[in-house]
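OP here, attaching both records as promised.
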Amino acid sequence: MSRIKIKIDRTQKRFRLKSPVKNIDIPVKKIVCRTTRIPSVNRLRDLYRKSFENPKNIDDQIYIKDHLLHISSNQTRYDLDDFKKDIRLINKRLNQKLIHRRKYKKSPNRIVFFIFYEQSQDKELTHCHILLRVPKFLKNKIKKLVRIIEKHLPPLFSVRLTKRTQQISVKYPTKRTHELNDNFDVY
């Protein structure tokens, strides 16, 4: 890599680049430092965050804003498609247990998972962060939901419910969301 000297002529406010390898003098109007970071504009992440900040409770459904559910596979390199299938089955069993045995899909009072999938960089563990929408009669029974989820978890899976502020519970799951990945699902 060659070194380039920058000569600044302060009287005329011009910049000149001089190369030590060749005898070239190039006039430059503006110098841009490539190490400076341009703030990224991530519209998809902002859209998710704005939609979960003030959701409207409709049809006797309540968004649980102060709790964040975390489900993890404790196996390294667990396939994301298999993980999505397992989470979908957990949601199905939870709705069958608490809402209605057969007609839970058509019921307006079903439990909805808003899921953000992630793969940890260090340990390569597949996990997800879940925001919940539940019927009003289950609003104060979140720990019961977690116990039922624990019963229906596949082997080597773990579940954790954390109480957070609304701002953290919305920002944390969306931290790796951008236009190039599809890590969001609704069940």
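Record two, same layout:
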Amino acid sequence: MSELRFLPSIGMTGTWALKPPYNELVMASTQYTCTGIESLAGAIASDRDPYAEVYEVNGADESDFELDLKNNAYLVTITSGEGDVVVFPNTAIVSVPNTDGVIYRNLAVVLSLSSLPDEFDTTAIEQQLRDLVLSKLGVNSSSYVIQVGGLTVLTREQSDAYEQARDANIASLTSPIFELTKLRADYESALQRIQHLEQFIIDRGLVV
């Protein structure tokens, strides 16, 4: 038997718990916002059939509809962030929306690489970006390279000038990440020189 319980307000957002058969309409971990409230009597006065549109289509009994109508129940419309719309009587609400949860969103950072020659290999920079995300967020991310806009054809001279300008920008960088990259490259270069020197000493029998 249906009972008049909760009447949410427009804009109320959270996760919703509903009684059968309406519980199948919502996802337990999805946030929905109340976007509409209308009385059953008002829906009927607007020449609509709320029993067919909301009750019957979801498997509710006509007796539930009649009792809700007698008790001046309301139709509640909620909408998810993805645009999914759910309509149910307010008598189906088990509890007011839970707003205590932490909202998570899938985010992506889009970086423009500007125009690059077709032979440019993005493998290294993609790996560096994934490593940066892993070190900062603890997330193993995926990277995708897409083309934005049309093609641009440069002369060989224009291409060389463009490459020189990019190299000059790299050489003038002083950011912490660039300094760390430079230190790492210097370390690896010094390590190679030490290994070559050690091998030179060994090859000439200079080890005491």
